[in-house]
Amino acid sequence: MTRSASWRPALGVLGLSLMLVAGCSAAPQPAPSTPVAAPTSASTPTPSSTPTPTPSAPLGKVATDPLATMEVSPVSYDGTSVVVAQFGDVIEGRPVSLQSKTDSGWTEVATGTLDDQGRVEFLPRTAETSYRAVALDYDADGLALAAAATPVASAKSQWRLAHSDGFDGSSLKAPWAVRFPGLYYASRWCSAVSPGQVRLVDGNLRLGVAKVSAATTAKARANAAKATKVSVAKACPHGVYANGMVSTEGRYAITYGTVAVRMKFPYQRGMHAGAWLQTADGSDIEIDFIESFGYQSKWGIQNMLHPKGSSGNRLDVGHYPDNVPGLKDRDWWDQYHTVSVEWSRSGYVFRIDGVETFRTSKALSKKPHFLVLSLLSSDYETDRLKPDQLPAHLDVDWIKVWQPR
Questions:
Q1: Sheet arrangement for strand 95-102
Q2: Secondary structure (3-state) at 188
Q3: What Cα–Cα distance (Å) separates residue 371 from each residue in 46, 178, 350, 399?
Q4: Per DSSP, what are the bridge partners of residue 20?
Q5: 189 three-class SS
Q6: Strand, coil or helix: what is 181?
């Protein structure tokens, strides 16, 4: 590309400098006074706030970059949207204006800069609208260029709502059902799902972990001793527990799409809360788009894929995010958070409160998956469980599924 030797005034460049901040607050917050943009590293981007929108951003007709794309997430992260622009002309650091469509034309709602892949991600706090991104007519050094725009896009133009559950009422409704009630197995010889730990409370699905009766404990220990070939006295040394788990197995499944859940995780350790996707026969990739292990746990939370190895063993693809604002604070665990996974033919993108926490093209699945929500106390973790902190709860406000149009 041929660049002009003319220069923009230095003031315009300085006006677009970015200031990093810690990211989204754990609790729902009022709209910030300045728009928000997020860098888009394929690893773990951190949101950043921008100064007052640059007045020189073109708001009228702008030539479209024929290679540019625009993606608008259908998920509302407590009022925050996710908008991703990709330009064909890769000029790292080039200022970009995110603009929303109005009755009178375009208005700027956020600013950002291109990364080394020609990509920029925004986290605007605006109502659902149509967006375009405009790469401004100068680069990071002020060298003049021709302004270019992405195509116009909106969440509605790219996605359709395929499924939504708000868990209202007093009883669980189809396609949800309690999964594996009363079954002790594999890594859970000392815990089993109980229908009593699956309730609807104040418009939430509440999944629990609690101690069981002495009679149930004795039976479970005898069964665990036989299965693991130890004495009854050594079986289930940390106790026996009732868990909560529901799924849509056999009633609802998806292949590709975006799944989001608004949930409040238990702060207690010795258990893990999860929102995940699985195939009917369990032979394909398990998509654990969120698992939490409690406040001050060495694991915290994780995004994980579990493909099968050549011998049928379960493998791990994923990590424990370290860019989630407030995760190490006790207050984070008392707030609701919206978690999501976007699953496409090209890979997976995981987010928490709109912040990208993991992206990968590995372990791709093409098979239908059903939905699972759970709070489980596996045998490997109950040594960290404190009985005086029970019962513990995972509260799910809603779960939604969108599929591409």
A1: 105-113, 95-102, 131-135, 148-149
A2: strand
A3: 29, 12, 16, 10
A4: 48
A5: coil
A6: strand
The residue to which tokens 């100064």 are assigned: 51
Instruction: Read off the tokens for 352.
Output: 């928490």
Give 205's strand partners: 200, 396
Straight-line distance from the first to the last Cα atom of the chain, in angstroms, rounded to the nearest whole number = 35
Report the SS3 class of residue 227: helix
pLDDT in tens, the chain (405 residues): 433 333 333 333 323 332 322 333 333 333 333 333 443 334 444 443 344 344 468 899 999 999 999 999 999 999 999 999 999 999 999 999 999 999 999 999 999 999 999 999 999 987 689 999 999 999 999 999 999 999 999 999 999 999 999 999 999 999 999 999 999 999 999 999 999 999 999 999 999 999 999 999 999 999 999 999 999 999 999 999 999 999 999 999 999 999 999 999 999 999 999 999 999 888 899 999 999 999 999 899 999 999 988 888 889 999 999 999 999 999 999 999 999 999 999 999 999 999 999 999 999 999 999 999 999 999 999 999 999 999 999 999 999 999 999
